[in-house]
């Protein structure tokens, strides 16, 4: 039974919840507010699966970080909701009239939005590992010592806004409708749950296409440049183009492999994490890269 769950979990979770969102809005004609209830259902399924078939059992236990992660998620999702409220005005200001393919089926419009946003967010993510001032903001996300679905939403709010802007600006110029933007935000939240999931998923060849947890865990390694891989949000296409795609079965990422190696004492408190990018910090020595992770 666990083998079946491991093989089907990622594609069924991704396609099931995003497909349900498209059905609710497109076929059901319901308000986009229903997507919030659907996301809560996805959270519950995510937590249940993590406890049933965990990749690393100890990652399910709080390390004094649960309250902080909840605060990050609430504030960042609230900022996202406020952005959606401002969307009509932004589209009216920036859009090229008639550029968005409104005649396409809803699912195809969402597919276009995901593809465009994925390019912008993935490239901003890549830049955040290259530019020191961006890294200081992004480091908050990389400070996690365990990976589970909920901490995919753990980001410094300023970095969250920069990533969102990189993904959304081209869509604003195209004139993305508000319901597609809401579905896009929902799809990103579903993807982040899968990307940081503690489920022992075995997606097989799908891992080379979708940036789910088996690929993304390597990105959170604490071994310096060894973690400069697998930047994509949705599709590994961008890492193939950047030359940063990486996966090996010779190394199982476990407790103690995650975080920022040069900053093992990175603050855990929420407010301290908000202030950290603006404070001077001393870096320690990078831990040695395990042989199986050397590229």
From TrEMBL:
One of its GO terms (molecular function) is iron ion binding. One of its GO terms (cellular component) is membrane. Pfam families: FA_hydroxylase. InterPro entries: Fatty_acid_hydroxylase, Sterol_Desaturase_Related. It comes from the Bacteria. GO terms for biological process: lipid biosynthetic process. The chain crosses the membrane at residues 7-26, 32-53, 74-100, 106-127. Keywords: Membrane, Transmembrane, Transmembrane helix. Residues 112-244 form the Fatty acid hydroxylase domain. The keyword Transmembrane helix applies. It is found in: Membrane. This is Fatty acid hydroxylase domain-containing protein.
């Amino acid at each position: 039974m666990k083998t079946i769950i491991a093989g089907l979990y990622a594609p069924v979770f991704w396609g099931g919840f995003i497909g349900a969102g498209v059905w609710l809005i497109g076929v059901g004609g319901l308000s986009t507010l229903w997507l919030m209830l659907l996301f809560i259902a996805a959270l519950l399924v995510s937590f249940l699966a993590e406890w049933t078939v965990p990749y690393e059992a100890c990652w399910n236990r709080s390390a004094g970080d649960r309250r902080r992660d909840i605060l990050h998620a609430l504030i960042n999702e609230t900022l996202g909701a406020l952005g959606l409220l401002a969307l009509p005005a932004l589209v009216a200001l920036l859009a090229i009239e008639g550029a968005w393919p409104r005649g396409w089926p809803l699912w195809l419009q969402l597919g276009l939005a995901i593809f465009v946003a994925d390019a912008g967010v993935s490239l901003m993510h890549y830049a955040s590992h290259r530019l020191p001032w961006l890294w200081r903001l992004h480091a908050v996300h990389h400070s996690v010592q365990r990976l589970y679905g909920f901490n995919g939403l753990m980001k410094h709010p300023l970095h969250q806004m920069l990533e969102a802007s990189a993904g959304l600006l081209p869509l604003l110029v195209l004139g993305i409708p508000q319901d597609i933007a809401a579905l896009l935000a929902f799809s990103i939240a579903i993807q982040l749950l899968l990307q940081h999931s503690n489920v022992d998923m075995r997606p097989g060849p799908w891992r080379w296409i979708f940036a789910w947890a088996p690929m993304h865990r390597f990105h959170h390694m604490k071994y310096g440049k060894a973690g400069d891989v697998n930047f994509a949000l949705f599709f590994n296409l961008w890492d193939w183009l950047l030359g940063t795609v990486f996966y090996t079965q010779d190394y199982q990422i476990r407790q103690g492999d995650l975080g920022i190696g040069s900053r093992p004492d990175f603050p855990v408190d929420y407010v301290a994490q908000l202030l950290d990018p603006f404070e001077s910090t001393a870096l320690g020595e990078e831990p040695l890269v395990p042989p199986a992770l050397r590229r």
